[in-house]
Amino acid sequence: MDLLRSNLSRVRIPEPTNRIYKQECCISFDTPRSEGGLFIDMNTFLAFGKDCVAWNYEKTGNPVYLHLKQIRKAVPEDRPSKKPTLLAIGVDGGFDNSESEYEETLTIVILPDYVTLPFPSVELPEKVRLAVDAILMAEGAERKEQVAAWIADKKQTSSYAVNLLQIDNGVIIPPSGWKCAKCDKKDNLWLNLTNGMILCGRRNWDGTGGNNHAIEHYKETGYPLAVKLGTITADLEAADVFSYPEDESVLDPLLAEHLAHFGIDFSSLQKTEMTTAERELDQNTNFDWNRIQESGQEVEPLCGPGYTGLVNLGNSCYLAATMQVVCSTRSFGSRYYMTQSLKMAFEMAPADPTVDLNMQLTKLSHGLLSGKYSIPALEKDDNANATSTTTAKQEGIPPRMFKAVIAASHPEFSTMRQQDALEFFLHFLDQVERANAANPELDPARSFKFGIEDRILCSSGKVTYHRRLDYILSLNIPLHEATNKDLEVFQKLKAEKISEGKKVSSDEIVRPRVPLEACLASFSAPEEIHEFYSTALKAKTMAVKTAGLTSFPDYLVLHMRKFVMEAGWVPKKLDVYIDVPDIIDISHMRSKGLQPGEELLPDGVPEGDREPNKPLPDEDIVSQLVSMGFNHFHCEKAAVRTSNTGVEEAMNWLLSHMDDPDIDVPISQEAEGAEALSLDQSKVDTLISFGFQEEIARKALKVSGGDIEKATDWIFSNPDPSSLDLDATTSNTAPTPTDAGLPDGGGRYRLIGIVSHIGTSTQCGHYVAHIFKEGRWVIYNDDKVGASVNPPKDMGYLYFFERLNS
């Protein structure tokens, strides 16, 4: 006790705004239910597992910890199962969610000798007792972030709050003992902020909830705002304020005044009710999704190193499927698991390791690859029959902290909506590249990066070359190249049935089967560019564009463009099979660069009043983009920047460059400004010292007016070097500065991973990963990992190939 008193200065009583971690270790996936329990630093309120808490003591010197340990209670084998009377899960009368019950023990632990004091105890100093009580009463930061993610959009300030009418009717609200004014409900109660009426909330679809009295009162009176009683605490932003006319949860910046009108002292209230978002979250994550998605295949469960599942946090399967494949690659496994320990990452991390990408990516990699958490759930159940472990399902690990970090710079990924796995993959690699900008040689994202070169041949016989870098090879699917002969018969049958008003049954459907070779050939095939301005002819003419790769990455990712736009810009998913072999050879796709005898197009000036070097945008492309709601000038710029190659290319460019500093600068002024700007070589050298290539550094300084900070932001905002408009003309096949330093090698690759999508759109449905590991295919379906019976090689959305060493 004397030792504790001597360290009281290192104990803090948490404020309502402090983030308190008490569900999961910040460095590992240990929880209070792990063998060593969880240690909460009573100064920083960060949580640590048994193996990590000593590292925190060494780093911070904080000696006092609250130790949480949860032990599963034994369940009587003869416990009767209640018959459900409600269509609900986890509520009285509903289906039993079969969750185990745990007994929690609390102790105060003082490092470095792990001196232990019991809690609760009247002998403990008052400051320690108050601090522990506050920690236990507070909502965990993990839970807060989960709820915040479930709220798809950040709560907005209500337009009704500032001038809210409050009737001076003498109503004073007591601190407890509330009841609906129109029925006997004592929970789910809402206080109308205009007249002080306490009424029950809406009735849920399953019969639970309230009796709709609060919303009926709004319809009668028009009084707009209500706050849920039981959610009001000293942290007023967390209170659940609902706006009936806006039909959503809102922020009330004057809530303290509005509550004081009814005599409510918010500082003394404790939270007793779930907010609307918390209730929605629980209703949507309590289901056993694996039961719903059972495919009927007898999949042998797998456990051990490299076979750890990821818990679905609510529409997070896009993240789980992508990260399972990425972490299985040698480049990422080596960087964040083999050569970097958890302790190394923690020592390099800032004071709060939960916001550090390097720390959280190391934590995720160790969690997935070490096998520490890949244990059949039944092996840990004392009541389970040991003979049934062959059908045991592992619990998996929840990637909450990793998701929070990776989503911090992307508002869509911070929600609980379904996302496009491709978009997430590109965003993730961009973040990894930024995090390793100071040491590019350590950047594992480079193993996916390669150069693409577009060769444009105009009718004058002269050529121009454009280079860009990319992480993925996006392929069109040429349906006319389908190889199955019964397709034409099916098309005729389908037309006949439609004309007769009948539907085609599922067993009659014949899907086109297109070879991957045809998709790769489509990428390299000559493509006509109409209305191309030739500086040789000084007029618009027809040109032919071909594309090739200037380097072959260690890992080649093929994206199948299954989602296309139909007439009227209606998105549609192609119902097609892709025949993908285990081994591919893309050696023929290497760009040859400028060849002997080829003559480059001059940087000439067009005749007439036309601005220097200003190619003309294709009006058809511009008009289609404008019809979709884009700015007319931006559409013209997008068409020019993509050499008028097509609407899709222009739209992709536009979406990627909407936030560019020079998006509103005319192309001619860009050129003039770049020429007029005299770059300070010392600033160029500074950016080069950050790890950026010289040509990129120069371009960034040009578009940012010579400001180093803005130039750095511009580079990070434009990871796609196609935005640099580098007219790199090559005289041979040697790498130019655009792709210098990237991995390169032979063109033979082996298929190692597939990310498949089930559903009609990338914004809905489900993602599953299949990985070729230790001589067999393995399915990763969220937290379910097993030996694949029939890997869907012909149904992939993203295909991951590893280069074979010659």
UniProtKB/TrEMBL annotation:
Its EC number is 3.4.19.12. Keywords: Hydrolase, Metal-binding, Protease, Repeat, Thiol protease, Ubl conjugation pathway, Zinc, Zinc-finger. Residues 156-266 form the UBP-type domain. Residues 594-616, 722-742 are annotated as: Disordered. Residues 616-657, 678-718 form the UBA domain. Residues 607-616 have a biased composition (Basic and acidic residues). Residues 308-804 form the USP domain. The keyword DNA-binding does not apply. The keyword ATP-binding does not apply. It catalyses: Thiol-dependent hydrolysis of ester, thioester, amide, peptide and isopeptide bonds formed by the C-terminal Gly of ubiquitin (a 76-residue protein attached to proteins as an intracellular targeting signal). GO terms for molecular function: cysteine-type deubiquitinase activity; zinc ion binding. Pfam families: UBA, UCH, zf-UBP, zf-UBP_var. InterPro entries: Peptidase_C19_UCH, Ub_carboxyl-term_hydrolase, UBA, Ubiquitinyl_hydrolase, UBP13_Znf-UBP_var, USP, USP_CS, Znf_UBP. One of its GO terms (biological process) is signaling. CDD domains: Peptidase_C19B, UBA1_atUBP14, UBA2_atUBP14. It comes from the Eukaryota. Recognizes and hydrolyzes the peptide bond at the C-terminal Gly of ubiquitin. Involved in the processing of poly-ubiquitin precursors as well as that of ubiquitinated proteins. Belongs to the peptidase C19 family. This is Ubiquitin carboxyl-terminal hydrolase. It comes from Carya illinoinensis (Pecan).
